[in-house]
């Protein structure tokens, strides 16, 4: 599936995966979020004022530099520094029964997607200072082709294109804890 074309990506996210998406602010390297809040906690991952949520394709045509964002109600997003996520992904690829969708995010971070409502079960005393859980209707994540966002492991199965089964967060707990042990200098996501 192609996610470089914003309208094709929006169609995939809504029609194939059933995700609630919106047009969001854009993250700008060295300039922050287009919301103009210098301390924005989620740059490029929250809705723009006046977002209609009805015709995403039209909104993307009207605002080509905007990001595509998704509420974290169909999944929980475990956001962490990139090295921690990649160390966990190596372990997960060897041991998990299904692939874990993984997003590369701006500022050298990544997000692993798990079943909704299970993200906190992935946290241990070792990973809690490093991993942030985005969950519920008030949290969002940017999706490709938003600026500096891409899939490491997409949420659809190749070659069928159907959605992959998400794992419960608890199944990632040991992997994240060990990854944080190997990358102790990483700060909070």
Quick overview:
This is DNA primase. This protein has 189 residues and is of the alpha+beta class. It has 4 helices and 8 strands.
Task: Explain the overall architecture.
With 189 residues, the protein is an alpha+beta fold. The chain has one domain (6-182). 22% of the residues lie in helices and 26% in strands. It is built from four helices and eight strands; from the N terminus they run αβββαβαββββα. Strands 1, 4, 5, 6, 7 and 8 form a six-stranded antiparallel β-sheet that branches. It has a two-stranded antiparallel ribbon with strand order 2-3. Helix 1 (6-16) runs antiparallel to helix 2 and helix 3 (82-95) crosses helix 4. The protein is globular, with a radius of gyration of 16 Å. The model has no long low-confidence stretch (mean pLDDT 87).
Overall geometric form: globular
Low-confidence stretches are: none
Classification by helices and strands: alpha+beta
Query: What is the alpha-carbon Rg in Å?
Result: 16 Å
Number of helices: 4
Strand tally: 8
What number of structural domains do the residues give?
1
Distance between the termini: 29 Å
- List the helices and strands in order: HEEEHEHEEEEH
Tell me the helix content: 10-25%
Mean pLDDT: 87
The major pleated sheet works out as: 6 strands, antiparallel
Report the sheet-strand fraction: 25-35%
| Oligomeric description of these chains | single chain
């Amino acid at each position: 599936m192609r996610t470089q074309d914003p309208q094709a990506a929006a169609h995939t996210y809504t029609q194939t995966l059933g995700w609630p998406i919106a047009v969001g602010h854009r993250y700008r390297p060295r300039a922050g979020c287009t919301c103009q809040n210098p301390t924005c906690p989620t740059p490029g991952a929250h809705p723009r004022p006046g977002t209609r949520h009805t015709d995403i394709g039209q909104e993307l045509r009207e605002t080509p530099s905007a990001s595509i964002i998704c509420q974290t109600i169909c999944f929980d997003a475990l956001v962490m520094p990139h090295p921690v996520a990649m160390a966990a992904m190596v372990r997960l690829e060897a041991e998990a029964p299904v692939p874990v969708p993984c997003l590369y995010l701006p500022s050298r971070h990544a997000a692993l997607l798990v079943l909704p409502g299970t993200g906190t079960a992935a946290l241990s005393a070792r990973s809690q200072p490093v991993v942030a859980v985005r969950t519920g209707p008030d949290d969002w994540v940017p999706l490709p082709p938003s600026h500096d966002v891409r899939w490491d492991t997409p949420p659809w199965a190749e070659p069928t294109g159907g959605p992959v089964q998400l794992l419960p967060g608890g199944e990632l707990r040991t992997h994240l804890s060990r990854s944080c042990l190997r990358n102790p200098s990483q700060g909070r996501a």
